[in-house]
Design a protein that fits this description.
Largest sheet: 2 strands, antiparallel
Keywords: Membrane, Transmembrane, Transmembrane helix
CATH topology: A middle domain of Talin 1
Structural class: mainly alpha
Number of helices: 14
Subcellular location: Membrane
Number of strands: 2
Helix content: over 70%
Strand content: under 5%
CATH architecture: Up-down Bundle
Shape: globular
Radius of gyration: 20 Å
Protein name: Calcium:proton antiporter
Strand order of the largest sheet: 1-2
InterPro entries: Alkaline_pH_Ca-Antiporter, NaCa_Exmemb
Number of domains: 1
Membrane topology: Multi-pass membrane protein
Order of helices and strands: HHHHHEHHHHHHHHEH
Length: about 375
């Protein structure tokens, strides 16, 4: 039973969808797609997202937690960095705030959207969900430190006018981000791996999840390759779709910064679905690993990469948050701490986080 569910058959949709999406990406890249092509790209994008979730779960089953969550978080973020740099290189002065908008959107989507949805889905099915508060607390503390260091401080520094770092400050922030992210990965995977493993709960795993044999190395490597292909397709098709998204945003009168929110939603879709699947199986710790790990990687890898790219990119790099964004971040901090500290949560906490996400999305549309 386990072999048939984890082996990526040659003609299965999970194999065909990423390959077809990449082929479609190659055919439409750099062109001016019409309405029909935009629709086809959107369908291929959805297929690539679903395939990415499947292959991420196969890899996670082989390597175990928390390595499986780490694979998906890092893979998505590395490709997200490439997307940001590409858009900045071709976007001109209007793209100066794109890293800030994208990273902040990723933080709000992961810490409120993925977390809230996972808690709500788990609590609706299991009433109360439990998780390892030591691991969740360590991850949350790292995310918050990175957010303050890279998104809040630029608004208040005085070496350069405007919400941006000086060269020395940006270098320090980039190095600090790498140190924090590296320290967390070592803690998560080596020193205190048990802090990030799902908490055993009676009836939390079905028989298939409990007793299925892990896939073979060959199957896992195949799924890893298809996962990377699917993620490239997701980000690439999101970029192909971005002109249509920008045109749609402008047509309905939304701020251009909302484009970054839309792209962040698309890029984080695989992790959202994977976290939701884990929550329904009462494995909320896996969902938290995905949520906080994605937020952490989004800041800890993106800011250093953008700092290096800024050497040859023209124009300023606006990283500092505005007043409204800071208020949303502060409330998210308080609510997330109150959710994590008890080590257990109900559907109420899930609803609170989702309302915060809704508030962020609404204010992004109507600032």
């Amino acid at each position: 039973m386990a072999t048939t569910t984890t082996r990526p058959a040659l003609l299965s949709w999970t194999t065909v969808a990423p390959v077809a999406a990449v082929v479609l990406l190659a055919l439409t890249w750099g062109g001016d797609p019409g309405a029909l092509v935009v629709v086809v790209d959107a369908v291929a994008l959805v297929g690539a997202v679903l395939a990415a979730v499947h292959h991420a779960e196969v890899v996670a089953h082989r390597v175990g937690e928390p390595f499986g969550s780490l694979v998906l978080a890092v893979a998505v973020t590395v490709i997200e960095v490439g997307l940001i740099v590409t858009l900045m290189a071709s976007g001109g002065p209007e793209a100066a705030s794109l890293p800030r908008d994208t990273v902040f959107a990723a933080v709000m989507i992961t810490c409120n959207g993925i977390l809230g949805l996972s808690v709500l889905l788990g609590a609706l099915r299991h009433d109360v969900v439990v998780f390892n508060r030591e691991g969740a607390g360590a991850a949350l503390a790292t995310v918050l430190t990175l957010a303050v260091m890279c998104l809040v401080l630029p608004t208040y520094t005085t070496s350069v006018s405007g919400p941006e770092f000086s060269t020395a400050q940006l270098t320090f922030a980039a190095l600090a981000s790498l140190v924090l992210y590296g320290a967390f990965v070592v803690t998560q995977t080596v020193r205190h791996r048990d802090f990030f493993l799902p908490v055993p709960v009676d009836g939390s795993r079905d028989d298939e999840d409990e007793h299925a044999e892990p896939p073979s190395n060959r199957t896992a490597l195949t799924s890893l390759g298809l996962l990377l292909v699917a993620l490239v397709a997701v980000v690439g098709l999101a970029k192909v779709e971005s002109p249509a998204i920008e045109a749609g945003v402008a047509a309905i009168g939304f701020p251009q910064s909302f484009v970054g929110v839309v792209i962040a939603l698309l890029v984080l879709a695989p992790e959202t679905l994977a976290a939701a699947n884990a929550a329904r199986r009462n494995r909320l710790q896996t969902s938290l690993n995905l949520a906080f790990g994605s937020a952490m990687a989004s800041i800890g890898l993106t800011i250093p990469a953008i700092a290096v790219a800024s050497i040859w990119l023209d124009g300023p790099l606006l990283l500092g948050l505005g007043a409204t964004q800071m208020v949303l971040l502060a409330v998210t901090v308080v609510v997330a701490v109150l959710t994590v500290v008890p080590g257990r949560a109900t559907r109420l906490q899930g609803v609170v986080h989702l309302v915060l996400l809704a508030g962020f999305l609404f204010l992004a549309v109507a600032p």
